[in-house]
């Protein structure tokens, strides 16, 4: 359910009422039955009609021991417990996938849960080290799937260069290859540089020259069925994605590896808007979530867009049905 | 002319032949007459017809003393000398503006010219400290002008956090305000955060909490006719620009201040593609240039797009004709 003081419950009720959601899927919601019912009644009172009725949904009603005092910390604690329980449930059912609502990291921190995001909790809970934060969107115009994988995720910008190294890039490319191989035997992957103009031969930053160029060459030699391009100038790296998104005849690539959060997320959101889905790859199951935050400023107003949640559910189903991807790590 | 081993001469000949270029403007090209003529003949031999004939252009033919041996360093030296001469000429004529072709920083460096870009040479040549690198594009769909100013420019990513401070942000906002005031008396400016989710209250980076939040508040108090929003989450900061670019009824803002090169340039290029123009603000004259590089990989093939050069010329004329902007610093 994510953080219940945000737009999570609203977009879930809206999404589960949409006719875009695949049939023959069993949904189980993990959260507070009472809160979900309250959200439903509130949204109905605002005049909203296209909502799933909580009465018709299977809810794993979780009582969280922390005081239910509507504080940030209380919502932080409950959203953390919902995630832990949901992971437990998904692990029990081999054909299941997890879709998560948005949470607030600050609220988690206030509640004493020091994780930088849901992805990190998932990796720890599954005992997996090499997971990937992949943003994926299917173009409604061309049907092309636009994929951006992040090499680093929720860290301060000044930490990015220190965190990156050859081993990390290789592990992310391995994950990316496995993901793309479920769609395409000979994928084309692009890698963005770290610095402006990909360092411009060392003038605008040394990482490309020092190790990133070499890292890509050595990985390429071991993975000859992948066409690997990069490191490319970050500011033009996504131009081909714009074209592939909107033009059926444009050249298509299978994915771009971004060096840091905003380098990948800015073009993803600008190009794919509400169609973008956050997917965790490398786990024993598929996990997706909408690519936006809790939207505290618009929570309770009835105006939240549910398209990203709809896409998250559709992507979870589509990817889970593709058995080749599962259990590769 | 920029670097003559790149696509500069080609896009100049294409642009000056376009009927989008305003009439009654006197152009003076600074570069090698011989090289421009050679480019013209070569492109004609490939079958290209929509080209300005160098015979009909005013050319300030500059003989550069470095050996004309077609080396990177030789092209680096000549493109540097063309810029210096062009600045000299523009300074002589009050109503003139400078449009520059793309150069290669590595070639400049090889020729012993240690500047990180043309902007830095311009600032030094004009004895101005506070200049701004502004990217601007006029939407062909809505006529809205999309502006992104960079707080830091051509530096390695790991240097960005060290370079930023309150004084720098205030000086860039001052420049941005003056620019926007030429279009709008009460502009709306947005400021992107530095870190993912604008630091998420200190969890994902400390700069916003330590000083950026306060820097915006103090500037806002001194500039009450500006609606200032930020620091905003970088990955959704440009979503409103996408809408304003393509929808006449969408809410419009006057500009976004980006913290670093790729944060601003990625969304600019994804949204505005070839319409984006690099403008230097804060100089005693207006300088624009296309927002792409030398395109060495496609130079001489006749396939370079001249739209960004056409937009650069149009923007230089439009902004120069607006006298309010000139000599404000």
Describe it.
2 copies of one chain form a homodimer. Chain A is of the alpha/beta class. Chain A folds into 2 domains: 1-128 and 292-329, Isopropylmalate Dehydrogenase (3-Layer(aba) Sandwich), CATH 3.40.718.10; 132-281, Isopropylmalate Dehydrogenase, CATH 3.40.718. The first copy, chain A, is 40% helix and 14% strand. Chain A has 12 helices and 10 strands. Chain A has helices spanning 8-15, 33-45, 72-92, 105-110, 118-125, 160-163, 166-181, 207-222, 234-237, 239-246, 261-272, 307-320, and strands spanning 29-31, 59-61, 98-99, 132-138, 145-150, 188-192, 227-232, 255-258, 277-281, 287-290. In chain A, the strands form 2 sheets. In chain A, strands 3-10-9-4-5-8-6-7 form an 8-stranded mixed β-sheet, with helices on both faces. In chain A, a hairpin with a 6-residue loop joins strand 4 and strand 5. In chain A, helix 3 (72-92) packs across helix 5 and helix 7 packs across helix 8. Chain A is globular and about 60 Å long. The first copy, chain A, starts with 7 loop residues before the first helix and ends in a 9-residue tail after the last helix. Residues 324-329 of chain A have low confidence and may be disordered.
